[in-house]
Design goal:
Shape: elongated
Helix content: over 70%
Number of strands: 0
Oligomer: single chain
Largest sheet: none
Distance between the termini: 8 Å
Order of helices and strands: HHHH
Number of helices: 4
Structural class: mainly alpha
Length: 102
């Protein structure tokens, strides 16, 4: 079994995992870039990171205390996304639907 057929055969696992991973690493990039760039910067990379991650940051900020600094909320978001990926893997492992290495 080659890797190409594995990806297409198990798309129902790889697609959500890819989306969660991309969001997690984009949020981590926002954390690192936020240490250098001002929050109201017109930098196009900063605006891209903010636009992509703002919906998830808004969801995380609902369950975090209001006195929390924005960078801490972003880091909490990275942790939440990591555990969502672990949970996704666990669910698919329990269902027996994860691709096996042969």
């Amino acid at each position: 079994m080659d890797i190409g057929s594995s990806i297409f055969t198990h798309w129902y696992f790889h697609l959500p995992n890819l989306i969660l991973a991309a969001l997690m690493y984009t949020l981590l990039g926002r954390v690192l870039l936020g240490l250098i760039v001002q929050p109201d910067s017109s930098n196009y990379i900063w605006r891209f990171f903010c636009r992509v991650t703002d919906p998830f940051v808004a969801a995380v900020s609902i369950v975090t205390p209001k006195a929390t600094a924005p960078v801490v909320i972003w880091l909490f978001g990275v942790v939440w996304l990591f555990w969502m990926r672990v949970g996704l893997l666990y669910i698919f492992l329990m269902l027996g639907a994860v691709p096996r290495v042969s």
